[in-house]
Amino acid sequence: MSDNDFTTIDEKEQDFREVHLESGQENPDDTHPGKQPDEKTEVVETAEVLKNEHEEKEDDYEKVCFICHRPESVAGKMMEFPNNITVCSDCLQKSFDAMANTPIDYSKMNNMPGIQFMNLSDLENMVPPQQRVKKKKKKETKKFRKLDIKDIPAPHKIKARLDEYVVGQEYAKKAMSVAVYNHYKRVATDTMDDIEIEKSNMLMIGPTGCGKTYLVKTLAKLLDVPLAITDATSLTEAGYIGDDIESVVSKLLAAADNDVERAEQGIIFIDEIDKIAKKRNSSQRDVSGESVQQGMLKLLEGSEVEVPVGANSKNAMVPLTTVNTKNILFICGGAFPDLEEIIKERLTQKTSMGFNAELKDKYDHDKELLSKVTVEDLRKFGMIPEFIGRLPIIFTLKELDKDMLVKILREPKNAILKQYQKLLALDEVSLVFDDSALEAIAEKAMKKDTGARALRAIIEEFMLDIMYEIPKDDNIGQVTITRAYIEGTGGPIIELRGQEVPRLN
Q1: Which terminus of the chain has fewer CB atoms gathered within 10 Å of its CB, N or C?
Q2: Is 67 domain-assigned?
Q3: Between β-strands 493-496 and 476-481, what pairing exists: parallel, antiparallel or unpaired?
Q4: 289 in the same domain as 188
């Protein structure tokens, strides 16, 4: 033991005496005259404190199975063995089963020549360093509050908030606001004079990149309710490879932190709903089409569903809980390709000869064609009548034109241009876009025919060099993006700090 250890102990002892003297207490050493402080006891106490601190640090790490290397949070309770070896119950059971099922008598092997059993004490130096996994910090769960009819925002307020983030789509935003308002009034009141209000499930039809998913995300954030977004493409009939139909409810339960009461007031958005349409000319069983629609009927209408807690499949060895889907709002969305051809075929059934005849190409360039959709068109597309009947609110979203794309670039609260301007503002550089540059970006996006998703890809392409070169020079104060730079015939206008570029009148 070094002198430093005793010096540290003496200092602690002096501090301890000073504290007692200041508080008016007698010196603890004076209570027993002639008794000297026991240095060994204090050293032992210090060692115990250090040991406790070490154990607290060790508690921050999870135990890991020596065989399968899974942490305790995944594998469950660990069995501890000498030399800090921990084994999960699964691996331990498998080891016992393997030994029990092996038709070898180990007692006879001791007398066989050439057979030598390993001494377990030799394993001490052969154990590799154990994996260390830090424990995850527990998330703070939000307190569940029951919906009050006074707290539900009115439809015009819901639409006003949606206007801040989503450009255009006026009819879709109005239909959504009214449907959500009526649904949560139904949830808050439960019943009105024995008149049961039906669910306001929605079906959104619109081309890719027109804002279907974005509308639902914004809506869930506004209402502060749990939201689960899932894809219909992975769903199959129970018993086949793929997700069960009930897995959409288990995702909502996970989004609600496994709070069943909170999940029963949430929103489920099922995207790519057109992919479960009835398959045409299929000789095999339609396990991912019509069967999924039939399996979802009770789910949409409202029924009690058993779902696993913390897993997507019922086959997982996890407890099941019951969730009632009566008050869960289902919103389905899809692009429905070739639906326009079905609508066009219905509208041009009149004869094309004689007076008042309609031309065959009358609806070829009609941009509002999708808004003329009917239930009969959806049935011809492959959706069964029972499924469509449980989605009473059907509305369409318009395809984005050039003016809407320019507005999407500039107006929303988290517009793409505002994101890049904020990134360069952190480097104390101002980013400016010409109006002609925005039009050029919109024209390029129109050619890609993927809606608003094309805007990000185009901007990423021409902003790459700017984001790479700007941090090199601290003298750059402003960058102006021009149409010539977007089209590849020129470059951006770069201004240095304190420099004014002369402008032509």
Answers
A1: C
A2: no
A3: antiparallel
A4: yes
